[in-house]
Amino acid sequence: MNMKKSKLVLALSGALFMTLPMNQAFAHDDHCEIKDTKLGDTMKYMKSELRGYTKGFKSADQKKMQRHLNELLKLSEQAGRMMPVTIAQLGKGDLEKIDYSKMDHDKSEMTEQQREKQAQYVEGIERLHALFQALNESKDKAEIESILDKIKQQTKEGHKEFRQDC
């Protein structure tokens, strides 16, 4: 009888343990209620344009590459004037009052920590923009591949540091 109880306890504790990750996922969703932002939409569009550029590069379609590159240059300039939600949430202000859909940064209302993080973000976006400009100037296939690798690395670093974890 004792053996049956211990097996039952083991089975129940295993079942409870398996639900733990699901509970954490739901708790995580609660804190990620801010999903659609102007910056998020801009970054999705940049990702799409970069894929278009890469497809044009693989098919040696210079017109397609240039069309997508022009958009990437424009979008990276716009992204540099925005603030990631992760930085805005570092503020002391009431998060309910922040309009995340039209997020732009106003340094006068930022904390020191926000200013530092925003400066890091802008620096990363400027590096990305410079890589897009380098693509615009390059005609060498090997150099373009190298720049695309650097862009991939730069976006990974930016996502790791500033992307909402939702």
Uncertain segments are 22-31, 94-103
Q: Output the structural class.
A: mainly alpha
Counted by DSSP, the helix tally is 6
Spatial separation of the terminal alpha carbons? 47 Å
Principal-axis shape equals: globular
pLDDT averaged over residues: 79
> What order do the helices and strands follow?
HHHHHH
Question: Could you tell me the number of beta strands?
Answer: 0
Helix content: over 70%
The major beta sheet can be summarized as: none
Please, how many domains? Answer: 2
Strand content: under 5%
Radius of gyration: 22 Å
Describe the structure.
The structure is a single chain. By secondary structure, the chain is mainly α. It has 2 domains: 1-31; 34-162. It has helices at 2-31, 38-58, 62-79, 85-88, 112-137, 141-162. Helix 2 runs antiparallel to helix 3, helix 3 runs antiparallel to helix 5 (112-137) and helix 5 packs antiparallel against helix 6. Residues 22-31 and 94-103 have low confidence and may be disordered.
How would the blueprint of this fold be written?
Layout lengths: L1 H30 L6 H21 L3 H18 L5 H4 L23 H26 L3 H22 L4
